Amino acid sequence: MKTNLKQKLLNKTALTMSGIALLYLVLCLMVYSGMASRQLLLVILPISCHIVLAVSLNLVVGFLGELSLGHAGFMSVGLFTGCLVSIATVDVLPMAVRIPLSMIIGGVAAAAVGLVVGLPALRLKGDYLAIVTLGCGEIIKNVINNLHIKKGPLAGVLDGALGLNTKTIYSNIKQLLPFLIVLVLLVVWVVLNIQKSRHGRAIMAIRDNRIAAEATGINVTYYKLMVFILAAFFAGMAGVLYGHGFSIIKSAEFGYNFSIELLIIVVFGGMGKVHGSVIAAILLYTLPEIVLREFSDYRMLAYSIVLIVIMLLSENRRFKEWKDSVSLKKLFKKMFKSKTAVAVTETDAKEGGADES
Amino acid sequence: MSHKEYVKEGSRMVPYPSGAIVPERDLNKTPVLEAMHLGIDFGGLTAVDDFSLTVGPTEIAGLIGPNGAGKTTVFNLLTNVYHPTRGNIMLNGYTTAGKTTAQVNQMGVARTFQNIRLFSNLSVLDNVKVGLHNEMKENLLSAMTHMFGYKKQEKQADERALELLDFFHMSSLAYDEAGSLPYGAQRRLEIVRALATSPKILLLDEPAAGMNPSETFELMENIRRIRDTFGIAVMLIEHDMKLVMSICEGICVLDHGKVIAKGTPEEIKANTRVIEAYLGKKTEE
Amino acid sequence: MITLIQALLNGLSLGSIYALIALGYTMVYGIAKMLNFAHGDVIMVGAYAVITSVVQAKMPGVLGVVVSIAICALLGVTIEFLAYRPLRKAASLTVLITAIGVSYLLQNVAQLIYGTEQKAFPELFDSIPTLTLGEVSIEGSLLLTLGLTAVIMAALTLFINYTRVGKAMRAVSEDKEAAELMGISVNRTITVTFAIGSVLAAVASVFYGASYTYIRPTTGAMPGIKAFTAAVFGGIGSIPGAMLGGILLGVIEQMSKTYISTKWSDAIVFGVLVLVLVIKPTGLLGKKISEKV
Question: B281 and B153: one domain?
Fold first, then answer.
């Protein structure tokens, strides 16, 4: 049992990483050979960005246990800053330098805003913190919506509610895909690693019991800030790439509703489960786009219902009992239930139990 | 780990220069904990007043009193969960004024809680490793990359955590989820986690609550073993008089937020005020 | 000067609406210890109820308002029973996400029924004459908003302080377990709280509809969040606090619209929200809530 669980812990990172890598390998083959449909080409960028955004939001919601309703705000800070850098340097730097550079600057800008938001918000927890993040997200949206660049070489590029003109840095998916792959793999890898480190344990300890964490010597303020900054940094980087895929970007897109969609992805994938966020980001984006076209009116309705049901079930004792009773472990036991192979049953059942969840 | 048998050395309680009593063996050492005239008010209501206590570096001290006497509030004051309205706390000669709870822990105070507070979604091993947090030198870069000494640090932490769990015969549970443990094991895990922070004094808030006599006896042995093995002071809040009287060297009795008696178990047993306030009720039952 | 008086009056009117909504937040927060994120969307439902009953079913205005109040009360109680009651002991994160889900559900149901296009709100208060004092003209609906809000608040204060149910509500907000031991049904008290809050939201929806004239499925979200700000501003759990906070926030918003810019008014209101929460989370009239260790 001991070794099984240990192996499971070791393998989870490798499994998630190789799964994502495989997925992108297939995508690469399709995109660069010209086999990919127009539809597929269109969704690669938003899905990849949603993966990064959801995984980074999971850091706040799933690991730290605090609700952030302003994640889209952090993303747009990164997006607008990074894209402005990219626009300013478009004639000077080659793409291979310009995009990573603007991503880093965008990420740092978002992280700085994360720090500014996080610092005072740290005194708060629960509902109040959620509302402050919501308020900050809306303020960011409102502020960007009122920014104009009227002078200098970038005059007219950013014009309030008309948005940011990103035509000059527009890149197609063939150009962006390598950057997306690196970003997604990097973020997922880093977040998975943090989870199994001294810092990740401290963060999850705060989630499980803040008072006990403090009494155990964990600097709660430091870790809350760290999570906010890190999540904002990743979201900002994703934002920069997102901005490169369109010819115009309006800050109004990245308001409360966008943040809620990200939250829905995190909850669907399972709070604290990185691979869950990845899968949920892909499914929630592709299902309505490709599979459930004619039901698109009901998409958000269905999501909201599922959101409520997931929350209600997570607190339901009978559901938990039922879930345990239908676990893979039991299933294995049933499948191998023959009097001649009792010994085999035992070992299989154990392995099944370890692989499950 | 040094295995000193403090009890066998003799633990006569002697007066400290300040008038407080400590075990004789601790006489010439800086007391691990000195609370001086602590007091706290909650919205005009005085919860604890003029609380003074000295605990020697290897003493097992007891804090007793009827329900609502303010015992847990004292623990919260000692760990800076509440900041005292009046008075001062010295740990090994350093004041804890202005420190956070986490900093007080790093200064050497670890505690358990009356209502168990574990990191219930983490494994037993990880709960202990959270306790080792400040001992580990794994920086953020190595945490993010699992390189640059990560494996070595984690291995050391695993070994240390398992060693500590072994102390309470819990290493076989290391990979279970903490929240799924039975009650007694949860209480023990809380103590192990506290010990993992390498405290100089361990505060136990009703460690025997909900335990049967044989479990209580085991706990008693364990508390002595902790003191002897780690060479630290233990202070406990407890309602089980038998436990308190048999393992505590110095006892402090609290009633309505005030200290009404301090002394050895024998002195406490004979103190009329204590009998009135506390033990009197017990004998009536 | 005239602009100032006009802005102040409009601010008072808007503030009254916020105050009515804020009362629902503050009562629920005080008693059930949860942030009912869907409260703002109850306003939207109330407004649509008026539209359907008055415009489509051709009911007289007063009856339309009564229908709207009844529907909102029923909705509030139903939401509490189905979504929040099973989570009474759950973590606040779980409850908050559920509430967000309910909010989204209401918006999307409204969208399916009424579409995303905005719908005109019937002109209920046209018959009330406009009052002219010198150069300041006060619309009838504004006067009605101010007057009725004042009456409702007075009635609510009396209700909370002097009736059995009101006393039970105060007892539950102080200490659930003790109230339960005293024979007060906590569940029933919470149900009543949701009903009252939703009725107030329905009234607010009528005033809101009258002054903004158009309704869409997302109408409730913004006033909802702003009213929550108002509730926190005044001190969550405090009824006079919600009134004070609502009025103040309404005036601040109107003033910033008049004197700074409409474009920045949301940022200013949210700025107030963040500042209040960060600097004085207990609000103007609230009590400090300490955590049990």
Answer: no
Boundaries of domain holding A225 = 2-297
Task: Tell me the pLDDT tens digit for each residue of B220-242.
Answer: 989 999 998 898 999 999 888 88
Residue pLDDT, tens place only, A289-308: 666 666 667 777 888 898 89
Residue in chain A closest to C268 (alpha carbons) equals A139
Residues B6 and B104 in one domain: yes
Helix (H, G, I), strand (E, B) or coil at B62: strand
Total domains in chain B come to 2
Q: Is there a single domain that holds both residue A357 and residue A289?
A: no
Asked if B238 and B153 sit in the same domain, the reply is no
Angstroms from B134 CA to nearest CA on chain A: 7
- Please list every residue in chain B whose beta carbon sits closer than 8 Å to the beta carbon of residue C288: 43
Task: Test B100 with A219 for CB contact under 8 angstroms.
Answer: yes
* ipTM confidence score: 0.87
Pick from B42, B43, B81: which is nearest to C293 by CB?
B81
Domains of chain C: 2-116+140-279 (1.10.3470)
| Eight-state DSSP code of residue B203 | E
In this structure, are strands B109-111 and B201-205 parallel, antiparallel, or unpaired?
parallel
**CATH number, residue B241:** 3.40.50.300
Contact by Cβ (8 Å): B66, B276: no
Q: How far apart are CA A18 and CA A25, in angstroms?
A: 10
Query: Which of C121, C116, C114 lies closest to C213 in space, CA to CA?
Result: C121
SS (H, E, C) B79-100: CCCCCCCEEEEEECCEECCCCC
**CB pair distance less than 8 Å for C281 and A312:** no
- Kindly determine whether residue C290 and residue B42, on different chains, have CB atoms separated by under 8 Å: yes
pLDDT in tens, C218-260: 888 888 888 988 888 888 888 888 889 999 999 988 888 888 8
**Pairwise CA distance, residues B187 & A53, whole Å:** 39
Kindly determine whether residue A201 and residue B130, on different chains, have CB atoms separated by under 8 Å.
yes
